[in-house]
């Protein structure tokens, strides 16, 4: 049994540890992008509007505003291209799927910050 676990860990590689975040939190995802033969890291900062899936298939959706246009991007949690994730602020929301933010603009789209 121990040999099987050792083999699975070897194939799985390094599991990166990310901070715990949930819907409504503002995070910055450092994502590695290959352009031709060069590689760079793109900082993608936005609000987590959805976390879905279980285990290896877990993914999260981050929404940001870019020149008054809403841009959403889905990141797999175990992607090798994610360099790191920084938790910028925790939001106070009452639901897990924040699709209603798609209809809101400007100050109406703000999320209250969690105060301890």
TrEMBL record:
Keywords: Ribonucleoprotein, Ribosomal protein. The gene is rplS. NCBIfam families: rplS_bact. One of its GO terms (biological process) is translation. This protein is located at the 30S-50S ribosomal subunit interface and may play a role in the structure and function of the aminoacyl-tRNA binding site. Pfam families: Ribosomal_L19. This is Large ribosomal subunit protein bL19. SUPFAM superfamilies: Translation proteins SH3-like domain (SSF50104). GO terms for molecular function: structural constituent of ribosome. GO terms for cellular component: cytosolic large ribosomal subunit. PANTHER family: LARGE RIBOSOMAL SUBUNIT PROTEIN BL19M (PTHR15680:SF9), RIBOSOMAL PROTEIN L19 (PTHR15680). Belongs to the bacterial ribosomal protein bL19 family. Signal peptide: none annotated.
């Amino acid at each position: 049994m121990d040999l099987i676990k050792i083999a699975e860990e070897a194939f799985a590689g390094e599991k990166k540890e990310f901070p715990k975040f949930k819907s409504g939190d503002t995070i910055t995802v450092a994502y590695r992008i290959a352009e031709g033969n060069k590689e760079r890291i793109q900082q993608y900062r936005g609000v987590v509007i959805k976390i879905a899936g279980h285990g290896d298939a877990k993914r999260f959706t981050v929404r940001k505003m870019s020149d008054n246009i809403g841009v959403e991007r889905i990141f797999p949690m175990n992607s090798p291209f994610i360099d790191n994730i920084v938790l910028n602020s925790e939001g106070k929301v009452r639901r897990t799927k924040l699709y209603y933010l798609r209809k809101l603009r400007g100050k109406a789209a703000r999320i209250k910050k969690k105060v301890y």
